[in-house]
Request: fold
Amino acid sequence: MNTHAFTGQYVRVLTIAGSDSGGGAGIQADLKTFSALGCYGMTAITALTAQNTQGVQAIHGVPAAFLKAQLQSVLDDIGVDAVKIGMLHAPDIVEVVAWAIDHYQLKNVVLDPVMVATSGDRLIAEDTVSVLVRQLFPRVELVTPNLDEAALLLGRPLRQVAQLQTAADDLQAMGAKAVLLKGGHVEGNEVVDVLTETGHAPQLFNSARIHSHNVHGTGCSLSSAIAAYLAQGLALGSAVAHARQFILQAIASGAQVRTGHGHGPLNHGFGPQVMHVKPRP
Reply:
């Protein structure tokens, strides 16, 4: 076959995250999001979970050496235009990811510091948190904590919209280039998220709360959508705005559907895009 005849390639996005056997969060949600937004998705799995809509029953971590092998397989051959990082359960796993970012000079990296599942189950070891902050915050384009994760990182409770801007600034001061602090856990009929980015004025994103029992994997899907839009060439603020709109529509489209007996998934496939193809370099 004459490979020189190929002139295009898909927009490529890699997820480095844990697997959700129930299909609502983790790499399963990431891949659904990438596909819905017209991107070619790839995975490097950090952990396997026995998980459903009611919670996490068991976690089986992948050895760091095998995670490195997955990353090398994908990055040496296919390459990436953006990366989403999710569940990293142990310090040596974090260090492998930091190595990959440096070794392959990865761009458009979005870190979702997955620490607590929607069900309330803790997904990260205590000693991993400080390593995550030290090794990854300075290396990624954006960090996307929710209020529970931000409270864990900052060591103080966060319950009010008025606290969001200061909290986002404090998180950025921990070494991040940009922080999207998600305020969905604050009570009220409006959801407010705050984006702080070095060299830019803070941006507030407001939207009416969509009341739904099916919000499992919302954070995973949002960070994946941001990565997908960054891979397509959007600036960070625009990528966040487009990703939020995708998530709002996915929540609204799946609100009346029953899946399992707990927190069900979003409807990622409400309006899939065709695969984006760009010229080969």
